[in-house]
């Protein structure tokens, strides 16, 4: 078994509640607060220390997730809240399920981000971005996105990471499918 769960689906209840709260906050405020992620990391460390007697499992997830996600923060592909969300997920689920969830989150994220962005700027914003890219390719010069353009939006990625993690946990818990063994 990948994660150190005792086979009881109720063990994932804190994770599911955490993921729902993080999604809601990221969608409503475009921010995942530190108090939520850092407290969940502490909860996950305590859980694995008390229930499984294996804090190393949680710490390994925490360290691996940081090493994987921090470069994306430095390159500004992810915000700090997204990185801390991933670290909290990995601390609870372990690094293997975290990696699966990250992959699923990337797959889910593209259509989700496009849908959320479409809601904000509509067809005109998409068309403006497409036209700008055509001009960039033709002139080989960078043009900054204009206001109201799809490319200029900051769209929350926390929901995609949360859905990817939930999918990975469900698929592994019920032994439906696993990518990492």
Automatic annotation (TrEMBL):
<feature type="domain" description="Prepilin type IV endopeptidase peptidase">
    <location>
        <begin position="15"/>
        <end position="113"/>
    </location>
</feature>
<feature type="transmembrane region" description="Helical">
    <location>
        <begin position="98"/>
        <end position="118"/>
    </location>
</feature>
<feature type="transmembrane region" description="Helical">
    <location>
        <begin position="160"/>
        <end position="180"/>
    </location>
</feature>
<dbReference type="InterPro" id="IPR050882">
    <property type="entry name" value="Prepilin_peptidase/N-MTase"/>
</dbReference>
<dbReference type="InterPro" id="IPR000045">
    <property type="entry name" value="Prepilin_IV_endopep_pep"/>
</dbReference>
<feature type="transmembrane region" description="Helical">
    <location>
        <begin position="57"/>
        <end position="78"/>
    </location>
</feature>
<keyword id="KW-1133">Transmembrane helix</keyword>
<feature type="transmembrane region" description="Helical">
    <location>
        <begin position="35"/>
        <end position="51"/>
    </location>
</feature>
<keyword id="KW-0812">Transmembrane</keyword>
<comment type="similarity">
    <text>Belongs to the peptidase A24 family.</text>
</comment>
<protein>
    <submittedName>
        <fullName>Prepilin peptidase CpaA</fullName>
    </submittedName>
</protein>
<dbReference type="Pfam" id="PF01478">
    <property type="entry name" value="Peptidase_A24"/>
</dbReference>
<keyword id="KW-0472">Membrane</keyword>
């Amino acid at each position: 078994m990948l994660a150190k769960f005792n086979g009881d689906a109720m063990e994932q209840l804190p994770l599911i509640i955490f993921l729902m709260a993080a999604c809601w906050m990221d969608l409503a405020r475009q921010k995942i607060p530190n108090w939520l992620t850092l407290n969940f990391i502490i909860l996950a460390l305590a859980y694995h220390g008390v229930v499984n007697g294996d804090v190393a499992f949680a710490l390994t997830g925490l360290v691996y997730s940081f090493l994987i996600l921090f470069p994306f923060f430095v390159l500004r592909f992810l915000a700090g809240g997204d990185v801390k969300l991933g670290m909290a997920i990995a601390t609870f689920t372990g690094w293997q399920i975290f990696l699966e969830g990250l992959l699923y989150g990337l797959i889910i994220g593209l259509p989700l981000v496009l849908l959320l962005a479409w809601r904000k700027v509509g067809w005109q914003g998409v068309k403006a971005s497409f036209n700008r890219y055509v001009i960039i390719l033709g002139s080989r010069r960078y043009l900054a996105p204009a206001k109201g353009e799809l490319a200029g939006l900051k769209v929350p990625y926390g929901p995609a990471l949360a859905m990817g993690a939930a999918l990975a946990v469900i698929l592994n818990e019920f032994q439906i499918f696993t990518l990492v063994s």
